[in-house]
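Quick question: what would this complex look like in 3D?
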Amino acid sequence: MAWNFDDNRPIYSQLVEILETKIVSGEYQPGAKLPSVRELAITAAVNPNTMQRAFSELEREGLVNTNRTSGRTVTEDPNMLRQVRSQLARGHVDYFFKKMKELGYTNQEITSLANEAASKEDNQ
Amino acid sequence: MAWNFDDNRPIYSQLVEILETKIVSGEYQPGAKLPSVRELAITAAVNPNTMQRAFSELEREGLVNTNRTSGRTVTEDPNMLRQVRSQLARGHVDYFFKKMKELGYTNQEITSLANEAASKEDNQ
DNA sequence: ATTATTGTATTAGTAGCTTAATACAGTAAT
DNA sequence: ATTACTGTATTAAGCTACTAATACAATAAT
């Protein structure tokens, strides 16, 4: 997953979303040590303060644990990981339907488009 | 469709999205006269300058026509309306799949969730 | 013990978004 | 002709996000 940002949203909140996704999808394994704030800031090409701000949010959610001098680790609680993953997915589904209905699409048309898109893309 | 904004994106760009949706979904009919900038600014509870900025974008896209002293009208070109509607829908579908795959969902899981959501919501 | 690395905090400057308050020119309505 | 309404432009102020440049305390590594 790439570190691409769109200009229309604050970077720190996009960082939160990206880091959450990397964690719950397993790209960062449960219990694994995360790169340091400075290191990740370089990787993502953002200011360390901005990365720090994103991590404050992840810390608040409980997805990461912080040891002041030895760095951060991903939570090892599998229930939390599953739950956050489901929440994020649910949010995407709801948002998708909300937007499509605003455009005037019916449930049937929406699922047809989804099935069509799934069959056209690379499998898995 | 309501005039609700989230804090994480510029209001003018959210206005563009809302106005586009109202137009291509038919809430604002083809050829119809639109409320004035000042009037819409009051309705949406934003500054007239912000609403003006949004309309500049719609004007640039060709979705509305501007008569300097008599106001704005929705385009009467049905092809343009259909095309923009499809573009917006396609964007939502693509974004939905992109985000779900980042979370580690397969095509099959994605379409299952979509079908499930469609059957649970109010029909149509 | 010394060094390097960790998270964290602070201060300053820049840029963009939004609001506010006007103002102007053209036209429709009266 | 006067009035009201149209889109449009300008200037100023306030706020937030972001970057930059440091600094400090705690700990791991040497």
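Answer marked as accepted. Residues 79-122 of chain A form one domain.
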